[in-house]
């Protein structure tokens, strides 16, 4: 398949609203005429919360891995 065909097919993958990434969904709240800040900020919070919760649960393992690998802050 030529590159142009692959690029054309990739455009049809995220046509459903369930298949869109969070960045694409958040960009829908910003238009040339109006910026819906409350919805944009709430969407950003909803996007960040799962990552933050995962980080908080795995923080001790990340720090332990940094210690074992020898990565230092100085």
- Helix share bin: 55-70%
Count of individual domains = 1
What spatial form do the alpha-carbon principal axes imply?
elongated
Strand content: under 5%
State the helix count: 3
Radius of gyration: 19 Å
Query: How many strands?
Result: 0
Class from secondary-structure proportions: mainly alpha
Uncertain stretches: none
- Nearest-integer average pLDDT: 78
Q: Biggest β-sheet: count, sense, barrel?
A: none
Order of helices and strands: HHH
Map the helices and strands:
Layout: H1 3-10, H2 22-27, H3 37-69
Structural notes for this entry:
There is one protein chain. The protein is mainly α and 74 residues long. The chain has one domain (3-69). Helices cover 64% and strands 0% of the residues. The chain is built from three helices and no strands. The chain has helices spanning 3-10, 22-27, 37-69. The longest helix is centred in the C-terminal third of the chain and has 33 residues, at 37-69. It is elongated. The termini are far apart. The model has no long low-confidence stretch (mean pLDDT 78).
């Amino acid at each position: 398949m030529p590159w142009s065909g692959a690029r054309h097919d990739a455009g049809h993958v995220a046509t459903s609203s369930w298949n869109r990434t969070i960045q694409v969904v958040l960009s829908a709240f910003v238009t040339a005429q109006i910026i819906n800040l409350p919805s944009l900020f709430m969407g950003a919070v909803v996007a960040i919360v799962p990552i933050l919760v995962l980080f908080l649960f795995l923080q001790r393992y990340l720090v332990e891995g940094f210690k074992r690998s020898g990565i230092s802050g100085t």
